Amino acid sequence: MTQFSDLGLHQPILAALEAERHVTPTPIQAQAIPPVMEGRDLLGIAQTGTGKTAAFALPILHYLATTKKSVRGRGARVLVLSPTRELCGQIQDRFEAYGSKMPLRTALVIGGVSIGRQKRDVERGVDVVIATPGRLLDLVEQRALYLSEVEVLVLDEADQMLDMGFIHSIKQIVAKLPKERQNLFFSATMPQAIAQFANNILTDPVEVAVTPVAKTADRVDQEVMFVNPAKKTDALVHVLKKDEVKHALVFTRTKHGADKVVKNLVRMGVPSEAIHGNKSQNQRDRTLTAFRKGSIRVLVATDIAARGIDVEAISHVVNYDLPHVPETYVHRIGRTARAGADGSAITICSPEDRSLLRQIERLIKQKVPVVAAPEGLAAPEGAGEGDAAPSGRNGKGRGQRSGNGGGRGAGGRTGGNRSEGGRQDGGRAEAKPNGEHQRGPRRHDDDGSAPQRRGGNRPAGKGKPQGRKRQDAGASGVGDVNFMQPKRPARGRPHRSSAAPAASQNR
């Protein structure tokens, strides 16, 4: 069996690995490290928890240690882009742990915290910058960071970054990088849009893939409970109050839904906290620390925020809301049964979500065992059969329009590819094929959240009646014109169209 010592890594890195008690590489590490050390571009398909951070961190550190080069002020040799603040923090921790026996300067560039300190961190130049796209562009535009010396680019969780609407930010960043560089591209899934995006960045890449997305963790005990939609919270409380539930991670579709679940759980005697994109970075850090230490037993999260949760002690994953994308279910339940431990995944399914469950079962190629709901909480017999639930795969679920990838979800206005951020309080809109927004490029903060504003994406020609009313009145000079039902012309005077030239209106 291959060991790290067989890969030819620099001796200080091997010493750090020994201190971390890492001896044998995981499959993704064993396949990825050699070609990356050779300078090849890499396309890696691996889920969170497979050790992919070390798969790119170790060869990068080897490159930095064996190619001494000074970095000018406000410059960086390596750029790592990741979708969430928590993931960026974990990546920095791994770089510093594996590089603890060698000179190494890293900088964390994320939103939700003061930008002033980040400017100071990169002022003298650094070896590695780990960043979320939005905050990185802030520093670049303020000329606090230059990307002209980047030698290695890493895109981590690329599918999630595109799903969150970072496509325009990433294109802007790539355009500022030197053409001669090494590119490492990691994604948990590889839909067509991701593959096309990777082809535009990578040059003759080596492809490695481990743990297919359809394969669920062998040690995860899966169950589904069919409940009355009005009793979902009661069913959740019933599950969480079981003695065997030590650390539970509860998934909801939306940030608003996560806050609502926490409020109801606390009211019903189950202490819990929520983590999502609307929380400040300090709030998220405190919540995660408390969850790791065990002072918080139940954590309610959205899928995007959960990408940064790396807690080995999670005993149960609860799907309070089923995801619209079946692959997301596999990522969710993979949060438990880590490091050789056993784990359980329980899905609370209401009748309208049965079709989503069927999609998941087709993906994982197995039926999820059904457990009886407590008395008084079960869904009516046969309810939901044949109902069409929203599907993120074809963009034509309930309440979605075909053709533009947007419409009204199950309770919130969505448009284009807004994910956790923006105005999505009730349903997830399917992304357009290239991951772009309907309204064109928009700057996103971390976790894909965009500046919120009133109104939505109004089709052309359907603006506010009041605004059109003022415009028509000013153009025609005939006074107050109602946009929906224009006044009849005065008797004996010809009606003048608002489109008539101004010169002919004023005699």
Main sheet characteristics = 7 strands, parallel
Strands, count: 15
Classify the fold: give the CATH topology of the domain at 4-209.
Rossmann fold
Task: Kindly report how far apart the N and C termini lie.
Answer: 94 Å
Strand order of the largest sheet: 3-4-2-5-6-1-7
Instruction: Determine and state the CATH class of the domain at 4-209.
Output: Alpha Beta
Mean pLDDT: 79
What CATH architecture label of the domain at 4-209 applies? 3-Layer(aba) Sandwich
Structural class: alpha/beta
Low-confidence region ranges: 385-442, 448-487, 492-507
Number of helices: 17
Overall form: globular
Radius of gyration: 26 Å
Strand content: 5-15%
CATH superfamily of the domain at 4-209: P-loop containing nucleotide triphosphate hydrolases
Q: Helix proportion of residues, in percent? A: 25-40%
Helices, strands, pairings?
Blueprint: H1 11-19, H2 27-37, E1 42-45, H3 52-66, E2 76-81, H4 85-98, E3 106-109, H5 115-122, E4 126-131, H6 133-141, E5 152-155, H7 158-163, H8 167-175, E6 182-187, H9 192-201, E7 206-209, E8 220-226, H10 232-240, E9 248-251, H11 255-267, E10 273-275, H12 281-293, E11 298-301, H13 303-306, E12 316-319, H14 326-333, E13 343-349, H15 354-364, E14 407-408, E15 413-414, H16 465-476, H17 502-505
Parallel strand pairs: 1-6, 1-7, 2-4, 2-5, 3-4, 5-6, 8-13, 9-11, 9-12, 10-11, 12-13
Antiparallel strand pairs: 14-15
Helix pairs in contact: 2-3, 3-4, 6-8, 14-15
